[in-house]
Design goal:
152 residues
């Protein structure tokens, strides 16, 4: 029987524990990085959807400019906006999917930039994704029109 002379080969228990700790720490970091990446991708997707929904609402309002320009009181404008918002929500099934939204007419400014008969409406559209921890996206919609182009 031979006795071990000199230094034995292999790894000690401490070296194995340190190596496993380093590997575990690295793997946990990679998993967390992947999770945050997926959350950011989902948030970006929701922002893109918010932009598309806002663009659709802007086109709906632009399509009804002549009707909108003929409204005289704030209550008529508010009633029109509520109807448009209800149709818009129904078409995109926003309420069923948990999205919260609202629209408000902020101003109607006439004759800007010195052009005769040119006016614009400014609306604020708020869209909030289904998860309440996310902040709402507020889109300001500017819709210009020429009063002379609308026939009564």
């Amino acid at each position: 029987m031979k006795l071990a002379t000199g230094r034995e080969q292999g790894f000690s228990l401490i070296e194995i524990l340190v190596a496993s700790f380093v590997i575990t720490f690295g793997l946990v970091g990679m998993v967390l990085m992947q999770t945050y990446s997926q959350q950011d991708a989902f948030r970006a997707h929701q922002l893109s959807l918010s932009g598309l929904y806002a663009q659709d609402m802007q086109e709906r309002l632009r399509a009804n400019l002549c009707y909108l320009s003929g409204l005289e009181t704030d209550s008529e404008v508010e009633s029109f906006l509520v109807d448009q918002l209800d149709d818009w929500r129904a078409d995109h099934a926003l309420s069923q999917r948990g999205w919260v939204s609202g629209i408000e007419a902020l101003t109607q400014v006439a004759d800007f930039e010195g052009e005769d008969g040119e006016s614009y409406w400014r609306f604020e559209l708020e869209i909030q994704p289904p998860q309440p921890t996310r902040s709402a996206t507020i889109q300001t919609l500017l819709i210009d029109y020429r009063e002379g182009g609308c026939e009564s």
